[in-house]
Amino acid sequence: MKILQVPYANKIPLFSKAGTIPGGLEKVIHNVHKLLLSRGYDCHVIDAEGSYWDAPNVHKIMTESPIETNKRIIDFIYNNDIDVIINHGRKSFQKNLNKESMKNLFIDHSGLDALMKLYDEECYTTTWENAKKLGTIFIGVSQTQIEARNQGIQKQMNSDFQYDDWCKFQFVEEELNLPVLDPEGYAFAVARADKVKELHLMEKFDQFPYQCCTSPYHREEQEAHQKYMKRYEKFYAQDNVHWNLPRPQVIDKFRKANLLVSTWYAESAGITAFESLSYGVPVVLNEKKFDHASRFFAPEGNDYVCTLNETDKMREFFDYDLEKRRKISEEVREYNSQKMFLNNFVPFLEKVQQNNNTNSVLNFL
After folding, report:
1. 44 has which bridge partners?
2. 75-93 pLDDT tens trace
């Protein structure tokens, strides 16, 4: 089985010169690639020209042109006998795969409210349905996400399309398997500087001292974004709002926080909440419309996840001692193990192999 991961955006390198990973989707690609390689899979990744990701089987062939990039990826598939294609939400590329009669595993990482009739109707009425006929499987990254998406399709689109399933892509890896630390007396939030992510909600979070880590939006030239940044200029200029910190420093702030605030209600999964819980840090969710997707990182009945309107619980969480934080970490790491992820994920890969006559890869587990 020869596996290829194809990222969503051809303009965003999977690893920057500053040593950072751009976002949650890209972090999933990194983690899946590293884990599959460690388990003996022949796994490959397409990356952008100019990326600084130095890892085995990373192929930097994406250009700024989506058309040229898609052509290069198809050529790569043929020239390297790829038989399992993982498409991380790259819609334009799905048409190329349909044209070549190639099935794939399509993973939708988009947020709960990322559905627009004008932009998406053709996909769900034509491209996606044609892909399903070829054997393509469409999955999301949380139960909340696919429930919201399926409901939205039924209401907005002239299509019977429904997502097939979902898979939790967050699992304990080296970066998360660190000792739990004593808290240092602050609430923490991390998100890019973007109206959608609502990091500015922290300025109303005045019951505790807070710190934030952020980075620039990759479409800074957009007028709407510039208006947003002007409106919240004072918030983003604060000394406790840190820009472009190296990853080790961000992790250090995670581990020393008393609690994590997930500011975006429409997270498809919410990787920052998972990172926080892995370090034993309780989580506060901005929850609207649907159950927040990050709830799926913790077992039901837990006592370390609440919403922004549960002020008593937030105060209780803020005062958790080291022993309590260690219990959170142990429970969350067991609940989101690598073995559990592989048991859920590998069967999807088997189903979309171009040639299914090979032996099951589950024996690698």
Report:
1. 4
2. 999 999 999 999 999 999 9
